Amino acid sequence: MTYLLAIDQGTTSSRTIIFDQQGNIVALSQKEFPQYFPQSGWVEHNAMEIWDSQLWTLREALRQAQLPVKAINAVGITNQRETTLVWDRRTGQPLHPALVWQDRRTQTYCEALSPAQQDLIRSHTGLRADPYFSATKLRWLLDYLPQGQQRAEAGELAFGTIDSWLIWQLTKGRVHATDHTNASRTMLYSLEHKNWDPHLLELFNIPDALLPSIQSSSDYYGDIDASWLGESLAIHGVAGDQQAALFGQACFEPGMVKNTYGTGCFMLMNIGNTPSPSAAGLITTATASTVLRPQYALEGSVFVGGAVVQWLRDKLGAIESSQHVESLTEAVDDAGGVIMVPAFTGLGATYWQPQARGSILGISRGTTMAHIAYAALESIAFQSTALFQAMVRDASTLGQQVDALRVDGGASRNDRLMQMQADLLGLQVIRPKVTETTALGAAYLAGLSAGVYTDTQELTEQWQIEQRFYPKLSTTEREQRMAEWEHAVRQTCLPTADV
């Protein structure tokens, strides 16, 4: 038998999933780790807690599967993107908590960039100048750390997104590398030239000596040190979580779109071999591609997707577990006029309103917690629909047609949410049999590099549909609901009046 192991390091938990060659899950291990919020808009992780939790899941998944380490043919890594970390090359110790992709502390820095500098960033990287991405986070760390800039220039420090951190730990410091997908999220990477951009390194004053090498997503990265698992294992694939999910969904042709429902929601559309800019407020990014087939995607990000359900659980105490939200919403037929805009850390594409904060509108004396839960769930579908509509506009200018949305991630298993999504889109929503497509994509990338698979056509043939959701709302109803949502967003983004 052939087995592939995927390390899936996410924003709120670390997981390891073992797949067989057909893409079936053999074992799954998961461990949550803490989130830290030292100030409003600041979000941090302890990198050693990430590593410890990931190593635990590695060992636990192998125990569950009752497989010897040597039965694993290859390892793939997928990770939360943009989260930024600096560590000491000599000791391997992080020098500051990781700044999470949700962290907004560099908003003022981004706003201070001149129009010409912002245009440079957009034209070279496909991204907007936003705290979401890694460059300003890295600049903040180098300014904050004692002698940070000097030590970086001297080659004493290493920067990485979480993939680089895990590779460093797994190989015991022998490999400092990243892939094109994660590099493309740093705001330091040239989409055209596929390397670290010297103009942007100069703009942010980032020393070359700090940076990891860049490799293909499907490539040999080195071996996991035998001391961690008893035997060494070869790492053959690395990709940021959303590009890995696009790959796992077999979206290999232009016009194919997937949406991952996790802590946030991330929608990507394959646009082929040219990094075309978006006219609708989206960003352009590298896809998880093989060396022979580089591709690009348009992406829109919802900062708070499934996290709104965690908020209901942890802050409001409305539900005991995330799985209970569906049963709570079954007590009502709709949101009762309530609309929630969960802009806890600002609004991403296509609004790009980092100063926005969450709001709940339309509350009456008859509003119950079930209505609020329904509105929270519906907010995920509203935000994703706004992204999809922008993608359809961009697809039209590129001569591409979009006729369905492939979905994955934990919240995609919520039937009520998926029906809401189909209703608001006016198109079918397709859920595959394997919704762990982020990890599956990492496993597939590793399998291609290791020779387990011949080409992507073999992966396309393995992709199978579990359920289709068809829209039930009329065009008029759908347009009215989206108009109500956009009105709520405008109210949320209004500046606070003086009292």
Automatic annotation (TrEMBL):
Residues 3-248 form the Carbohydrate kinase FGGY N-terminal domain. Its EC number is 2.7.1.30. PANTHER family: GLYCEROL KINASE, SUGAR KINASE. Pathway: Polyol metabolism; glycerol degradation via glycerol kinase pathway; sn-glycerol 3-phosphate from glycerol: step 1/1. Sn-glycerol 3-phosphate binds at T11, R81, E82, Y132, D241. Residues 258-449 form the Carbohydrate kinase FGGY C-terminal domain. HAMAP family: Glycerol_kin. It comes from Candidatus Paenalcaligenes intestinipullorum. Key enzyme in the regulation of glycerol uptake and metabolism. Catalyzes the phosphorylation of glycerol to yield sn-glycerol 3-phosphate. Keywords: ATP-binding, Glycerol metabolism, Kinase, Nucleotide-binding, Transferase. ADP binds at T11, R15, T263, G306, G410, N414. It catalyses: glycerol + ATP = sn-glycerol 3-phosphate + ADP + H(+). Inhibited by fructose 1,6-bisphosphate (FBP). The gene is glpK. One of its GO terms (cellular component) is cytosol. It is an enzyme of class 2 (transferase). GO terms for biological process: glycerol catabolic process; glycerol-3-phosphate metabolic process. ATP binds at T11, T12, S13, T263, G306, Q310, G410. Belongs to the FGGY kinase family. Glycerol binds at R81, E82, Y132, D241, Q242. This is Glycerol kinase. One of its GO terms (molecular function) is glycerol kinase activity.
